[in-house]
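Suppose you are handed a protein chain with no further information: no name, no annotation, nothing but its sequence. What can you learn? This example shows the usual starting point.
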Amino acid sequence: MPSIHTLEKELVLPTDLETAWKFISTPKNLDAITPDDMSFSIMTEVPDEMYDGLLIEYRVGIPIIGSQKWLTEIKHIKDRHSFVDEQRIGPYSLWFHYHEITEVPEGVRFVDKVTYTLPFGPLGAMAHAVYVKSELARIFNYRQEAMNRIFSGQEKETNSAS
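A reasonable first move is to predict its three-dimensional structure. Written in C-alpha cells, the prediction is:
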C-alpha cells in the first residue's frame, strides 16, 4: 500500500474575492505561477474560465525522467470559493489538489491542499524522501512568491488608477 502524502500551503494577499477568483479560475494563469525550469506548457486549448469536467493536458519537465504528459480534470467548483484539480494521467498514482479562497480582514486567504501518492512502491517512497517532497515544497513556494508579485502589481495598478 503506497503512502499517502499531503502538502498544505496558505497565503494571504491584499486583494478582493472577485479578483482572486478571476485569477485562480483562469487556467492560463497556471503558467505564470510555475517555475521556468519545469518547462511547463499547456497543450490543449483552454477557456478563459474553468468549468466542471474541464480536461487540461500539460507537458511538465521532470528531472531525470524528462518531459511528462499530465492530464488534469477540474471539478467540484464552488464559485468564488473552491475547486479541485485531479490528475488523470501523469507522474503520480494519485494527485488531488484542493484550492480554496476566503475573505479575511487583510484581503484573501489562498489555501492549497494536495493529497498525493507515488507509484513504484519502495522506489517511490525513496524518491519522495530524496527528491519529490522538497521539489513540491520548492514549486509551491515559487507559486506563493509569484502570486505575491502578481497581486502586488495589481494592487499598485488599482491604486494608481483611483
